[in-house]
């Protein structure tokens, strides 16, 4: 029964009224009933429009302007985009970010999956191990960055002290422009939330599939590749997409630990946006940079979605 | 029929109206009500909010006694202190959002672009009508500290202008073959002495350094026009001039101080022995660094931690920093602590009253008591005895002896934060061999010029 039907069945309050009036009242009631759900979601719509849609459209406009917040924006066409393409540090930040995405996203997926497989094994103390595995992901980024500075410090750091204990030479982890980006990649390759999602996925794999594979004489490694991984592909897709989007926006660690240095070695794209907006007061450049990142992210995400039909298995689906 | 409560319709209408009203109210800029009803209204109690993150800790708090002293004067003004570091970014967002305090205290770097963009409140008219304040208490270019394009936006206070010197441990200079009483007087001499002082342990770690150009004062780009005797921006503030031979020569010299010991070793050493002489762990305090470029706060800072460091204050030498224009005694006089008002303040006159209080002899004495530092103000210098702090006299004589006093007005730019950032980039690119000094400077010059042109475009 639809809301329209419900409205039509309401008893009229004024049976003595004219048919036109009654129809008008009925129409009004039907309209109100149709509108009621929208009224309930209105606060959410208001929030999205005010705090997301408007800033997004506003940033698009400002990407074609010179704008420093205090002076009125001045329209300059596509000049921001042209200038950014010429800046060596835009290319450097893009390359650093691509490297980060290409290495840390697959790395994070593999580590998350391996952790989940381990934590899916029924052993004593399983809950403790699961808790310990998720603890690193609960540490605030600023705290983790402060601790990491001590870990990677060339003179006082734990890692160099460890290497020294084995007679190995310490490295200038954070002060070498080439090495520093690998430090950040290494730091962020961890299971985290992705591991939890894989773990949830593992527990949803039907036991009868494992039973069937056992009857067929499949070895554990064959079961992993023929049963477990295919059944986890929807979770892999989700983790892949969220990791990709997050990796393109990687910001806090380098910002707090190295400020993007030395010599741009750890300058990632999101920090370049921040620098332009809030340090250089170049909101137009920052907006243009943001839109470039948005387009790149969309292309990557759409490509992943398009290819997902060939490698993601949905139970009850066509493939 | 009597109503027992809200109908659904009434509830939704009321909720919608309340939500809408709340949203509108939230979008209103935060303002303080003002009253123009003459003297009676002006004397009503007023709160002036001041923000600073400098010297606010319990063991070195300069602000509390200064504010207490102000309150004791019994004006209608109450000072409320926000003890939070002031950055250009925060200031920009606070002023744009209408939530800025009434007075900002900050070292001038980074505020130039805010002055240039009209974010700060012009003070000239207020100062002209302020009783009991005479800008002549300052010497020369120090008063220019808070000026942009001829308009006064800030008042120098507390330790005021930097007056940076080259400072050295006499015994180390002697070890390096120099005259302990004279110190390095040319860049080549400074480089030779620095090389001679480099000491490594058996593992190859640097355990003693000579001079580090990125030290307590050299970390900022504004240190370098003075000691290169070469500005990076034209007088009309329309052209960057980093792409000159003098800057390339200077940058090569800067890089050399790091290349000699090795960039990684120098960085590791800097992590272990920081620059700032206010820390007991400072490399210079512990004679792990032979020389340092530092401002007039240094003798007091070192004295305050002498119980921990044990450094002999009388064994520190001070002199004009070597200059690329050999023999020139040049000094940055003015780049220092300043009080500004954002344009959003509604209590400008009252805020100025507090700002002027902060230039007073009484405040100078409080700061001298706590920090053994002060600004170059004639009445304050008459009231204190500089000789009680070894080394301090040099800094206050230097502006009088210098051949050239640099004013911040000469080298601050409307894109100063970017200028700082890109200068660091040029240093690092040269140090790591990614680019030659000429190329690194050419590139940052082009990028800065683009930003400067954009600034001027918005001004036209």
Task: Write a compact overview of the structure shown.
The complex is a heterodimer of chains A (319) and B (460). Chain A is mostly helical and 319 residues long.
- Main sheet: strands, sense, barrel of chain B: 5 strands, mixed
Which percent band covers the strand fraction of chain B?
5-15%
- Helical content of chain A stands at over 70%
For the biggest sheet of chain A, the summary is:
2 strands, antiparallel
| CATH architecture call of the largest domain in chain B | 3-Layer(aba) Sandwich
Number of strands of chain A: 2
Mean pLDDT of chain A: 90
Structural class determined from secondary elements of chain B: alpha/beta
CATH hierarchy class name of the domain at 87-138 and 188-311 in chain A? Mainly Alpha
User: How much is the radius of gyration of chain A in Å?
Assistant: 28 Å
What are the secondary-structure elements of chain A, in order, as H or E? HHEEHHHHHHHHHHHH
**Most residues in contact, chain pair and counts:** A-B, 36 and 44 residues
Rounded average pLDDT of chain B? 87
Which topology of the domain at 87-138 and 188-311 in chain A does CATH recognise?
A: MetI-like fold
What would your notes on this structure say?
The complex is a heterodimer of chains A (319) and B (460). By secondary structure, chain A is mainly alpha-helical. Chain A has a domain of 176 residues: MetI-like fold. Chain A is built from 14 helices and two strands. A two-stranded antiparallel sheet of chain A has the order 1-2. In chain A, a hairpin with a 7-residue loop joins strand 1 and strand 2. By secondary structure, chain B is α/β, with parallel strands linked by helices. In chain B, strands 2-1-3-13-6 form a five-stranded mixed sheet, with helices on one face. Chain B has a three-stranded antiparallel sheet with strand order 10-7-11. The longest helix of chain B is centred in the last third of the chain and has 23 residues. Chain B is globular, with a radius of gyration of 25 Å. The chains are: A mainly alpha (319), B alpha/beta (460). Chains A and B meet through helix 2 and helix 13 of A and helix 1, helix 4, helix 11, helix 19 and helix 20 of B.
């Amino acid at each position: 029964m639809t809301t329209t039907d419900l409205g039509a069945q309401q008893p009229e309050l004024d049976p003595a009224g004219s048919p036109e009036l009654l129809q008008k009242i009925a129409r009004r009631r039907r309209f109100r009933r149709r509108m009621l759900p929208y009224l309930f979601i209105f606060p959410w719509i208001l929030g999205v429009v005010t705090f997301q849609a408007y800033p997004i459209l506003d940033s698009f406009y400002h990407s074609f302007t010179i704008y420093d917040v205090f002076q009125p924006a001045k329209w300059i066409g596509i000049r921001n985009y042209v200038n950014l393409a010429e800046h060596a540090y835009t290319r450097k930040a893009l390359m650093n970010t691509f490297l980060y995405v290409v290495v840390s996203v697959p790395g994070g997926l593999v580590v998350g999956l391996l952790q989940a497989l381990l934590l899916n094994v029924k052993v004593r103390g399983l809950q403790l191990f699961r808790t310990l595995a998720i603890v690193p992901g609960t540490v605030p980024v600023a705290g983790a960055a402060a601790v990491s500075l001590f870990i990677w410090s060339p003179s006082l750091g734990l890692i160099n002290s460890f290497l020294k204990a084995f007679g190995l030479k310490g490295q200038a982890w954070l002060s070498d422009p080439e090495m520093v980006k690998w430090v950040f990649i290494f730091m962020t390759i961890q299971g985290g939330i992705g591991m939890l999602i894989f773990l949830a996925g593992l527990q949803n794999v039907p036991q009868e599939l494992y039973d069937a594979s056992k009857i067929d004489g499949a070895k554990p490694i064959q079961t992993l590749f023929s049963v477990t991984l295919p059944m986890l592909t929807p979770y892999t897709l989700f983790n892949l997409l969220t990791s990709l989007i997050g990796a393109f926006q990687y910001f806090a660690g380098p910002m707090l630990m190295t400020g993007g240095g030395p010599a741009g070695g750890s300058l990632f794209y999101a920090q370049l946006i921040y620098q332009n907006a809030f340090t250089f007061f170049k909101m137009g450049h920052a907006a243009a940079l943001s839109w470039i990142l948005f387009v790149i992210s969309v292309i990557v995400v759409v490509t992943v979605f398009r290819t997902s039909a060939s490698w993601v298995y949905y139970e009850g689906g066509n493939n | 029929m009597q109503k027992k409560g809200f109908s659904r319709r009434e509830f939704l209408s009321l909720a919608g109206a309340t939500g809408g009203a709340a949203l509108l109210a939230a979008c209103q800029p935060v303002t303080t009500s003002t009253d123009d009803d003459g003297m009676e209204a002006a004397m009503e109690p007023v709160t002036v909010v001041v923000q600073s993150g400098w010297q606010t800790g319990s063991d070195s708090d300069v602000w509390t006694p200064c504010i207490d002293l102000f309150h004791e004067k019994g004006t209608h003004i109450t000072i409320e202190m926000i003890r939070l570091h002031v950055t250009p970014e925060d200031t920009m967002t606070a002023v744009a959002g209408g939530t800025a305090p009434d007075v900002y205290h900050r070292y001038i770097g980074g505020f130039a672009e805010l002055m240039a963009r009209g974010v700060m409140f012009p003070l000239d008219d207020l100062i002209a009508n302020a009783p009991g304040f005479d800008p002549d208490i300052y010497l020369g270019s120090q008063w220019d500290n808070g000026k942009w394009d001829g308009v006064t936006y800030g008042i120098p206070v507390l330790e005021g202008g930097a007056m940076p010197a080259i400072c050295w441990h006499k015994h180390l200079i002697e070890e390096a073959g120099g005259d302990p009483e004279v110190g390095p007087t040319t860049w080549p001499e400074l480089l030779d002495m620095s090389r001679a002082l480099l000491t490594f342990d058996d593992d190859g770690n640097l355990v003693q350094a000579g001079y580090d150009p990125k030290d307590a004062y050299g970390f900022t780009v504004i240190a370098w026009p003075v000691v290169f005797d070469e500005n990076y921006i034209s007088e009309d503030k329309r052209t960057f001039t980093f792409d000159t031979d003098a800057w390339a020569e200077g940058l090569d010299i800067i890089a050399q101080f790091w290349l000699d010991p090795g960039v990684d070793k120098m960085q590791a050493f800097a992590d272990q022995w920081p620059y700032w002489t206010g820390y007991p762990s400072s490399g210079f305090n512990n004679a792990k660094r032979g020389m340092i470029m530092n401002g007039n706060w240094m003798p007091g800072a070192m004295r305050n931690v002498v119980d921990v460091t044990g450094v002999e204050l009388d064994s520190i030498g001070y002199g004009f920093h070597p200059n690329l224009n050999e023999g020139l005694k040049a000094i940055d006089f003015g780049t220092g602590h300043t009080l500004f008002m954002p344009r959003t303040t509604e209590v400008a006159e009252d805020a100025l009253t507090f700002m002027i209080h902060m230039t007073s002899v009484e405040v100078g004495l409080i700061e001298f008591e706590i920090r053994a530092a002060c600004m170059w103000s004639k009445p304050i210098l008459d009231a204190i005895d500089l000789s009680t702090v070894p080394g301090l006299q040099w800094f206050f004589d230097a502006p009088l002896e210098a051949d050239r006093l640099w004013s911040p007005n000469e080298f601050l730019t409307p894109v100063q934060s970017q200028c700082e950032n890109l200068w660091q980039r040029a240093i690092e690119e040269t140090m790591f061999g990614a680019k030659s000094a000429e190329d690194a400077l050419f590139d940052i010059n082009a990028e800065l010029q683009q930003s400067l042109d954009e600034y001027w475009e918005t001004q036209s």
